[in-house]
Amino acid sequence: MKSPKPLTPQQVQFFHEEGYLIVPDVFAPSDLEPLRQKLHAEIGKKARALKAEGKLKDLHARIGFDRRLAALYRDSAENGNAISRHLEGLRGGGFHAPEMFEVIAHPKLLAKVASLLGTKEIVASSVYRIRPKLPKLGRGDVPWHQDSGYFTALCDNHLIITCWIPLVDATVENGCMQILPRTHTGKVVTHHTGGNAGFLVIKDENLPGDPRRSITAACPRGGVVFMTNRTPHCSTPNYSDHIRWSLDLRFQSADVPSNVGLWPKTIDAEGNADAAFYEKGNIACYPPEADFLVSSKKTPKLVTDYAEYARRRETYDQTKPNFSVVRRWPASVEAKPAGRKSRAKSVKA
Ligand SMILES: O=C(O)CCC(=O)C(=O)O
Known about the structure:
Elements: H1 9-18, E1 20-23, H2 29-52, H3 68-75, H4 77-88, H5 98-104, H6 107-117, E2 122-125, E3 129-133, E4 160-166, E5 177-179, E6 215-217, E7 224-227, E8 233-235, E9 244-253, H7 275-281, E10 291-295, H8 306-318
Antiparallel strand pairs: 1-7, 2-9, 2-10, 3-9, 4-7, 4-9, 5-6, 5-8
The structure holds 2-oxoglutaric acid.
2-oxoglutaric acid (AKG) binds at residues 131, 133, 142, 147, 162, 164, 177, 233, 235, 246, 248, 349.
Protein backbone atom coordinates (compact mmCIF):
# COMPACT_ATOMS: atom_id res chain seq x y z
CA MET A 1 0.00 0.00 0.00
CA LYS A 2 1.27 3.50 -0.88
CA SER A 3 2.08 5.56 2.18
CA PRO A 4 -0.67 8.08 2.77
CA LYS A 5 -0.04 11.65 1.73
CA PRO A 6 0.88 14.26 4.33
CA LEU A 7 -0.43 17.81 3.97
CA THR A 8 1.47 20.27 1.79
CA PRO A 9 3.49 23.03 3.51
CA GLN A 10 0.90 25.51 2.16
CA GLN A 11 -1.94 23.61 3.84
CA VAL A 12 -0.02 23.48 7.13
CA GLN A 13 0.68 27.21 6.94
CA PHE A 14 -3.00 27.93 6.18
CA PHE A 15 -4.05 25.88 9.23
CA HIS A 16 -1.70 27.72 11.58
CA GLU A 17 -2.67 31.15 10.23
CA GLU A 18 -6.41 30.63 9.92
CA GLY A 19 -7.04 28.19 12.76
CA TYR A 20 -8.74 25.68 10.48
CA LEU A 21 -8.27 23.74 7.25
CA ILE A 22 -10.82 21.92 5.11
CA VAL A 23 -9.41 19.00 3.10
CA PRO A 24 -12.15 17.61 0.83
CA ASP A 25 -10.56 14.24 0.01
CA VAL A 26 -8.82 12.72 3.04
CA PHE A 27 -10.85 9.51 2.74
CA ALA A 28 -12.33 7.61 -0.17
CA PRO A 29 -16.09 7.25 0.45
CA SER A 30 -15.50 3.48 0.80
CA ASP A 31 -13.16 4.11 3.80
CA LEU A 32 -16.14 5.42 5.80
CA GLU A 33 -18.64 2.83 4.60
CA PRO A 34 -17.92 0.21 7.33
CA LEU A 35 -18.66 2.82 10.04
CA ARG A 36 -21.83 4.02 8.30
CA GLN A 37 -23.02 0.41 8.02
CA LYS A 38 -22.10 -0.35 11.63
CA LEU A 39 -24.03 2.69 12.88
CA HIS A 40 -27.00 1.67 10.73
CA ALA A 41 -26.85 -1.88 12.14
CA GLU A 42 -26.57 -0.50 15.68
CA ILE A 43 -29.70 1.62 15.15
CA GLY A 44 -31.50 -1.57 14.05
CA LYS A 45 -30.25 -3.47 17.09
CA LYS A 46 -31.36 -0.76 19.50
CA ALA A 47 -34.73 -0.42 17.73
CA ARG A 48 -35.33 -4.19 17.97
CA ALA A 49 -34.48 -4.10 21.69
CA LEU A 50 -36.99 -1.26 22.21
CA LYS A 51 -39.61 -3.23 20.25
CA ALA A 52 -39.00 -6.28 22.44
CA GLU A 53 -39.66 -4.05 25.48
CA GLY A 54 -42.95 -2.97 23.89
CA LYS A 55 -41.77 0.64 23.49
CA LEU A 56 -41.69 0.75 19.69
CA LYS A 57 -43.90 -0.61 16.91
CA ASP A 58 -42.33 0.26 13.54
CA LEU A 59 -38.63 -0.54 13.06
CA HIS A 60 -38.50 1.52 9.84
CA ALA A 61 -36.15 -1.20 8.62
CA ARG A 62 -36.40 -0.23 4.95
CA ILE A 63 -35.25 3.35 5.49
CA GLY A 64 -31.56 4.05 4.81
CA PHE A 65 -28.85 5.36 7.12
CA ASP A 66 -29.48 9.01 6.19
CA ARG A 67 -33.10 8.98 7.37
CA ARG A 68 -33.94 6.02 9.60
CA LEU A 69 -33.14 7.54 13.00
CA ALA A 70 -35.21 10.62 12.08
CA ALA A 71 -38.22 8.36 11.33
CA LEU A 72 -37.79 6.55 14.66
CA TYR A 73 -37.55 9.92 16.41
CA ARG A 74 -40.72 11.20 14.72
CA ASP A 75 -42.62 8.18 16.12
CA SER A 76 -41.19 8.69 19.61
CA ALA A 77 -38.77 11.37 20.78
CA GLU A 78 -37.96 9.19 23.79
CA ASN A 79 -36.87 6.26 21.61
CA GLY A 80 -35.02 8.56 19.19
CA ASN A 81 -33.11 10.14 22.07
CA ALA A 82 -32.28 6.75 23.62
CA ILE A 83 -30.77 5.56 20.32
CA SER A 84 -28.93 8.85 19.68
CA ARG A 85 -27.48 8.87 23.19
CA HIS A 86 -26.25 5.31 22.75
CA LEU A 87 -24.44 6.20 19.51
CA GLU A 88 -23.01 9.55 20.44
CA GLY A 89 -19.95 8.16 22.20
CA LEU A 90 -20.43 9.98 25.49
CA ARG A 91 -19.17 8.53 28.74
CA GLY A 92 -21.36 5.92 30.38
CA GLY A 93 -21.31 3.00 28.00
CA GLY A 94 -21.26 5.01 24.79
CA PHE A 95 -20.81 3.30 21.48
CA HIS A 96 -17.45 2.06 20.31
CA ALA A 97 -16.64 -0.55 17.69
CA PRO A 98 -13.75 -1.72 15.52
CA GLU A 99 -15.25 0.29 12.64
CA MET A 100 -14.99 3.43 14.80
CA PHE A 101 -11.43 2.68 15.83
CA GLU A 102 -10.47 2.13 12.18
CA VAL A 103 -11.42 5.71 11.41
CA ILE A 104 -9.63 7.08 14.51
CA ALA A 105 -6.42 5.21 13.63
CA HIS A 106 -6.76 5.49 9.85
CA PRO A 107 -3.30 6.04 8.26
CA LYS A 108 -4.76 8.59 5.81
CA LEU A 109 -6.07 10.68 8.71
CA LEU A 110 -3.01 10.25 10.93
CA ALA A 111 -0.69 11.36 8.09
CA LYS A 112 -2.56 14.70 7.95
CA VAL A 113 -2.70 15.04 11.74
CA ALA A 114 1.07 14.37 11.91
CA SER A 115 1.66 17.22 9.44
CA LEU A 116 -0.30 19.63 11.63
CA LEU A 117 1.22 18.48 14.92
CA GLY A 118 4.73 18.26 13.45
CA THR A 119 5.24 14.82 14.99
CA LYS A 120 4.35 11.17 14.43
CA GLU A 121 4.09 10.62 18.22
CA ILE A 122 0.32 11.03 18.40
CA VAL A 123 -2.18 10.57 21.22
CA ALA A 124 -5.88 10.25 20.46
CA SER A 125 -8.54 11.14 22.94
CA SER A 126 -11.71 9.30 23.89
CA VAL A 127 -13.35 12.72 23.64
CA TYR A 128 -15.04 11.95 20.39
CA ARG A 129 -18.61 12.46 19.44
CA ILE A 130 -20.81 10.86 16.81
CA ARG A 131 -23.44 13.40 15.87
CA PRO A 132 -26.69 12.44 14.21
CA LYS A 133 -28.04 15.94 13.64
CA LEU A 134 -31.70 15.25 12.96
CA PRO A 135 -33.68 17.48 10.59
CA LYS A 136 -35.47 20.40 12.23
CA LEU A 137 -34.58 19.29 15.76
CA GLY A 138 -32.72 21.99 17.68
CA ARG A 139 -30.82 19.63 19.99
CA GLY A 140 -27.94 19.22 17.51
CA ASP A 141 -27.33 22.95 16.97
CA VAL A 142 -24.10 23.66 18.82
CA PRO A 143 -23.52 27.25 19.96
CA TRP A 144 -20.23 29.18 19.62
CA HIS A 145 -17.45 27.65 21.68
CA GLN A 146 -13.76 26.78 21.68
CA ASP A 147 -13.09 23.13 22.44
CA SER A 148 -10.65 24.32 25.13
CA GLY A 149 -13.68 25.68 26.97
CA TYR A 150 -14.36 22.05 27.90
CA PHE A 151 -10.75 21.15 28.75
CA THR A 152 -8.51 21.97 31.70
CA ALA A 153 -6.68 25.31 31.60
CA LEU A 154 -3.45 23.31 31.76
CA CYS A 155 -3.80 22.54 28.05
CA ASP A 156 -4.82 26.02 26.81
CA ASN A 157 -1.46 26.69 25.19
CA HIS A 158 -1.02 23.22 23.75
CA LEU A 159 -2.33 22.22 20.35
CA ILE A 160 -5.17 19.70 20.32
CA ILE A 161 -6.54 19.07 16.86
CA THR A 162 -10.22 18.49 16.26
CA CYS A 163 -10.95 16.49 13.11
CA TRP A 164 -14.58 16.99 12.11
CA ILE A 165 -15.58 14.22 9.72
CA PRO A 166 -18.94 14.24 7.95
CA LEU A 167 -20.49 10.86 7.13
CA VAL A 168 -22.80 12.54 4.60
CA ASP A 169 -22.02 15.68 2.58
CA ALA A 170 -22.22 18.54 5.12
CA THR A 171 -23.90 21.60 3.62
CA VAL A 172 -25.36 24.91 4.76
CA GLU A 173 -28.81 23.35 4.42
CA ASN A 174 -28.15 20.36 6.67
CA GLY A 175 -26.26 22.35 9.33
CA CYS A 176 -22.52 22.24 8.72
CA MET A 177 -20.21 24.23 10.99
CA GLN A 178 -19.38 27.94 11.04
CA ILE A 179 -15.82 28.87 11.99
CA LEU A 180 -14.35 32.20 13.09
CA PRO A 181 -10.97 32.32 11.33
CA ARG A 182 -7.75 33.96 12.57
CA THR A 183 -8.96 34.15 16.17
CA HIS A 184 -7.28 31.06 17.62
CA THR A 185 -4.02 32.48 18.97
CA GLY A 186 -5.44 34.46 21.90
CA LYS A 187 -6.78 33.30 25.24
CA VAL A 188 -9.57 30.88 25.89
CA VAL A 189 -12.44 33.36 26.20
CA THR A 190 -15.26 33.26 28.76
CA HIS A 191 -17.82 30.57 28.11
CA HIS A 192 -21.17 30.27 29.85
CA THR A 193 -23.10 27.16 30.76
CA GLY A 194 -26.74 26.78 29.75
CA GLY A 195 -26.35 27.02 25.96
CA ASN A 196 -28.65 25.05 23.68
CA ALA A 197 -29.08 21.41 24.85
CA GLY A 198 -26.68 21.97 27.76
CA PHE A 199 -23.71 23.00 25.61
CA LEU A 200 -21.24 25.68 26.67
CA VAL A 201 -21.69 28.96 24.82
CA ILE A 202 -19.54 32.00 24.05
CA LYS A 203 -21.80 35.04 24.06
CA ASP A 204 -21.40 37.34 21.06
CA GLU A 205 -19.77 40.03 23.20
CA ASN A 206 -17.10 37.55 24.32
CA LEU A 207 -16.27 36.19 20.85
CA PRO A 208 -12.71 37.03 19.85
CA GLY A 209 -13.91 38.31 16.47
CA ASP A 210 -16.95 39.48 14.55
CA PRO A 211 -19.30 36.51 13.94
CA ARG A 212 -20.27 38.12 10.61
CA ARG A 213 -16.75 37.24 9.44
CA SER A 214 -17.23 33.53 10.12
CA ILE A 215 -16.76 31.06 7.30
CA THR A 216 -19.15 28.26 6.37
CA ALA A 217 -17.34 24.94 6.70
CA ALA A 218 -19.25 22.91 4.09
CA CYS A 219 -17.41 19.63 3.57
CA PRO A 220 -18.13 16.62 1.35
CA ARG A 221 -18.20 13.04 2.63
CA GLY A 222 -14.57 11.89 2.60
CA GLY A 223 -13.38 15.34 3.65
CA VAL A 224 -12.20 16.55 7.06
CA VAL A 225 -12.44 19.94 8.76
CA PHE A 226 -9.37 20.40 10.97
CA MET A 227 -9.49 22.99 13.77
CA THR A 228 -7.42 23.98 16.79
CA ASN A 229 -8.72 23.75 20.35
CA ARG A 230 -8.97 27.57 20.48
CA THR A 231 -10.78 28.03 17.15
CA PRO A 232 -14.30 29.37 17.85
CA HIS A 233 -16.92 27.37 15.99
CA CYS A 234 -20.62 26.56 16.09
CA SER A 235 -23.11 24.68 13.96
CA THR A 236 -26.37 25.80 12.42
CA PRO A 237 -29.81 24.13 12.18
CA ASN A 238 -30.50 21.21 9.88
CA TYR A 239 -33.20 22.44 7.47
CA SER A 240 -32.84 19.44 5.15
CA ASP A 241 -34.92 16.24 5.05
CA HIS A 242 -32.03 13.97 6.09
CA ILE A 243 -29.69 13.46 9.02
CA ARG A 244 -26.38 15.30 9.06
CA TRP A 245 -24.19 12.50 10.40
CA SER A 246 -20.69 13.46 11.51
CA LEU A 247 -18.01 12.52 13.99
CA ASP A 248 -15.41 14.68 15.66
CA LEU A 249 -12.12 13.23 16.88
CA ARG A 250 -9.27 14.80 18.85
CA PHE A 251 -5.50 14.32 18.63
CA GLN A 252 -2.47 15.82 20.35
CA SER A 253 1.29 15.34 20.43
CA ALA A 254 2.45 12.69 22.89
CA ASP A 255 4.36 15.54 24.64
CA VAL A 256 1.09 17.21 25.67
CA PRO A 257 -0.27 16.16 29.09
CA SER A 258 -2.47 13.06 28.82
CA ASN A 259 -3.62 10.04 30.80
CA VAL A 260 -2.05 7.50 28.39
CA GLY A 261 -1.24 4.32 30.31
CA LEU A 262 -3.05 5.41 33.48
CA TRP A 263 -5.27 2.70 34.97
CA PRO A 264 -7.24 2.61 38.18
CA LYS A 265 -5.78 0.10 40.63
CA THR A 266 -9.14 -0.39 42.27
CA ILE A 267 -12.74 0.67 41.54
CA ASP A 268 -15.31 0.31 44.31
CA ALA A 269 -19.00 -0.54 43.84
CA GLU A 270 -19.87 3.18 43.45
CA GLY A 271 -17.25 3.66 40.72
CA ASN A 272 -14.70 5.44 42.93
CA ALA A 273 -11.19 4.62 41.76
CA ASP A 274 -8.11 4.87 43.97
CA ALA A 275 -6.83 8.34 44.82
CA ALA A 276 -3.63 7.97 42.75
CA PHE A 277 -5.72 7.39 39.62
CA TYR A 278 -7.50 10.72 40.07
CA GLU A 279 -4.36 12.61 41.14
CA LYS A 280 -2.26 11.40 38.22
CA GLY A 281 -5.15 11.75 35.77
CA ASN A 282 -5.52 15.41 36.73
CA ILE A 283 -2.80 16.32 34.27
CA ALA A 284 -4.81 15.13 31.24
CA CYS A 285 -6.48 17.78 29.04
CA TYR A 286 -9.86 16.11 29.71
CA PRO A 287 -9.46 13.78 32.70
CA PRO A 288 -12.89 12.09 32.55
CA GLU A 289 -12.02 10.23 29.34
CA ALA A 290 -9.20 7.88 28.31
CA ASP A 291 -6.35 8.94 26.02
CA PHE A 292 -4.42 6.39 23.98
CA LEU A 293 -1.34 6.32 21.74
CA VAL A 294 -2.29 5.88 18.05
CA SER A 295 1.00 6.51 16.26
CA SER A 296 4.60 6.21 17.42
CA LYS A 297 7.94 5.67 15.75
CA LYS A 298 9.72 5.66 19.12
CA THR A 299 7.54 3.06 20.86
CA PRO A 300 5.51 1.25 18.16
CA LYS A 301 4.80 -1.61 20.60
CA LEU A 302 2.79 0.74 22.80
CA VAL A 303 0.48 1.82 19.96
CA THR A 304 -3.04 0.93 20.99
CA ASP A 305 -5.08 -1.64 19.08
CA TYR A 306 -8.85 -1.94 19.12
CA ALA A 307 -8.97 -4.35 22.08
CA GLU A 308 -6.85 -2.05 24.23
CA TYR A 309 -8.78 1.03 23.17
CA ALA A 310 -12.07 -0.69 24.07
CA ARG A 311 -10.64 -1.79 27.43
CA ARG A 312 -9.50 1.75 28.23
CA ARG A 313 -12.83 3.31 27.25
CA GLU A 314 -14.81 0.76 29.25
CA THR A 315 -12.58 1.06 32.31
CA TYR A 316 -12.86 4.86 32.33
CA ASP A 317 -16.61 4.54 31.84
CA GLN A 318 -16.83 2.39 34.97
CA THR A 319 -15.09 4.97 37.14
CA LYS A 320 -16.77 8.06 38.54
CA PRO A 321 -15.71 10.89 36.23
CA ASN A 322 -12.94 13.13 37.39
CA PHE A 323 -14.22 16.64 36.78
CA SER A 324 -12.25 18.22 39.62
CA VAL A 325 -9.91 20.16 37.34
CA VAL A 326 -12.24 20.74 34.39
CA ARG A 327 -13.21 24.41 34.18
CA ARG A 328 -16.24 25.81 35.92
CA TRP A 329 -17.88 28.52 33.83
CA PRO A 330 -20.58 30.92 35.02
CA ALA A 331 -24.19 30.19 34.20
CA SER A 332 -25.72 32.24 31.43
CA VAL A 333 -28.11 34.83 32.86
CA GLU A 334 -30.43 34.32 29.89
CA ALA A 335 -30.48 30.57 30.39
CA LYS A 336 -31.01 30.49 34.16
CA PRO A 337 -33.39 32.50 36.35
CA ALA A 338 -31.65 35.61 37.74
CA GLY A 339 -30.15 35.19 41.20
CA ARG A 340 -28.89 31.66 40.58
CA LYS A 341 -25.16 31.60 41.03
CA SER A 342 -24.42 27.99 40.15
CA ARG A 343 -21.10 27.42 38.41
CA ALA A 344 -22.01 24.22 36.71
CA LYS A 345 -19.56 21.77 35.19
CA SER A 346 -19.91 20.78 31.56
CA VAL A 347 -19.43 17.47 29.82
CA LYS A 348 -17.71 17.96 26.45
CA ALA A 349 -20.33 18.99 23.89
O1 LIG B 1 -21.01 18.77 14.72
C1 LIG B 1 -21.42 19.86 15.15
O2 LIG B 1 -22.51 20.31 14.83
C2 LIG B 1 -20.57 20.65 16.11
C3 LIG B 1 -19.24 20.02 16.34
C4 LIG B 1 -18.43 20.67 17.39
O3 LIG B 1 -18.79 21.64 17.97
C5 LIG B 1 -17.13 20.09 17.73
O4 LIG B 1 -16.68 19.15 17.07
O5 LIG B 1 -16.50 20.59 18.70
